Amino acid sequence: MIQVLGLTKVFHDSKSQVRAVDGVVFNGQGGQVIGLLGLNGAGKTTTLRMLATVLKPTSGTASVAGHDIISAPDQVRRQIGFLSGDTRLYDRLTAREVLVYFGQLAGLDAPEARRKAGLLLGRFGLDEVAGRRVGRLSTGLKQRVNLARALICDPPVLILDEPTAGLDVLGAREVGRMIIEARDEGRCVLLSTHLMHEAEKLCDEVSIIHRGRILAQGPPAALAQGHGDLEEAFAALVGPENQGEEETGTRTPLGRAAARSVDEASAAAPAR
Amino acid sequence: MHRSLTVARKELLDTVRDSRTLLLTFVLPLALYPITILTIGLVGEANRAREASASLRVAIVGSEQAPALAPVVAEIKQMTLVPVELGPAAIRDRLVDAVLVVPERHEAAILSGAPSTITVYYDQTDALSRRARGQLETALGRYREHLLRDQLDRLGGDGRLVDAARIEVQNVASAGQMGAYIVGALVPYLLVILIASAASHTAIDTTAGEKERSTLETILVSAASRNELLFGKFLATFVTASAAGAMGLLGLTLTIAIPSSASAFAEGPILLPAWSIVVLLFMILPVAALLSALLLAFGCFARSTREGQTFASYFIMLVAVLAVLSVTSEIKPTTGVFLIPILGTTQAQRQILAGAHVHGEVLLAITSTLLVAGMGLLIAQRLFASERVMFRQ
Description:
The complex is a heterodimer of chains A (272) and B (393). Chain A has 272 residues and is of the alpha/beta class. Chain A contains eleven helices and ten strands. In chain A, helix 3 packs parallel to helix 5. Chain B has two domains: 257 residues, no CATH class; 110 residues, D-Maltodextrin-Binding Protein, domain 2, CATH 3.40.190. The longest helix of chain B is centred in the N-terminal third of the chain and has 35 residues. Chain B is mainly alpha-helical. In chain B, helix 8 packs antiparallel against helix 16. The interface between A and B is medium-sized, with 30 and 23 residues.
């Protein structure tokens, strides 16, 4: 469903350039939750934006649901539901109107969009607020509407950038439940987070990203092996005492194996 | 196209739910013409009444050099001859409204055939002083005739010859036509400002505003292409701008139907044929398209609503200058003029309101305006597709 091959993004301004994402490699299948775990500024959002075709990669490529993000971005967007901190909703539209709108943008005709909107409103417990303007909803309800929006076109791939940011405990649990549901429906869910417990609880596979590079990949339990838990493993990889090894993440055997595969994949990635 | 229409419908729904936009698009245009025209009428009436009742004060320096002059000046209604000789500085001090300065040996020089000039001093910035100047010039004409008549009689000729050749001026335009001509100078300018204001609000809100509210990425990740999204926003901006123009025109039509409002501009009712209203309505569309496209481009470029509004305000100033040019200056309506966007359409509207048949020129103005609108849309498209522009901090 998702194949990322050496994706790189370099931002330029008049004074300098920033390598936000550097040769990232990972895969995801249907029925899986893939986590991208990293600190703020690690390159998670940029990676997800490239996969959602909002940004163009500087080099490397990726395919989502069989479509190349560079040559077929329109097709990619028809196969994904994307949610991030920058995908807010329209305050003056009602929850129902938002879903119908995005359903129509996804290519559904008006009756079908309304039908699907109704189903999603029910599924996400939004029936009572369906006619309320988004601007008057709580943060938690807005996030549910946003998740429903991401699912309106029934996409096989969900790309979620820190979906629980700003939510309280119950709100975060609710989102977590919905992510698991989506996975169980056979979708591929790509989730970025900086919360260890979230990655441990929700993800089948985790890629640890730091300064734009993947340092380690694997199931959370495997990454945590030898460290106690995922947080310790993460700290071991990206902590300041490991500055010299952080570029290749070679502190653990898994990290070394991941680093080798990343290097090999980067070498094979097409240059732009 | 289907997605573009979906975007446009949503933007328009958003617009009508925003009370500020409703005010700008519907209420203000409808009210602007009546308020403007009635205010001009009231102020004009008040000024005329004030001027009519005000007594003008004039001083003559060297009146003994032109003994026949003072009686002529004294005949002017509501003009008082100040007995003290005050120089031009007295005008600035508001002691008098005008000063006549007669040179030494004035009448003697004239009678001997030598030139001699009486100077009228006045203040162009003061309405009463300007009126005094006008009346003094007329009086000086009568004074000159008086001197000529006397000289002719003295030389044995017939002084009545001076009165023989008379000039009479007749205006063939009816009062209604005069009113339409004057209204034609005002209407196109106001229409352009109305359309630009409404267009800028929607254009900036649907582009820079979306960046600020973080809703831009939400639509960029939808299945709609960037071109479809942008065209939808253009359609919504165009509809809003056209609606503002139409409301303005409706306000104008209703206002000039009120007889008392027409007195602001004419001595009789202002006649606007129905066909001219239809043509004016039709000509709103290319202007709305042009301004929508260009303002959309500004909105795409801006990082925030505030920045977008700043760009838009400078642009609207430029547009206003072009519109004012067609109002204040007697531009010769050549082909070249009709090719200039805004200037061409406002000139065409002015000609239509004056009753001229300018079908070819109208077509020229519309075509050139639509071409520039197309270019503006291309620029907006480039900017909207540019990652560097759309995601600038």
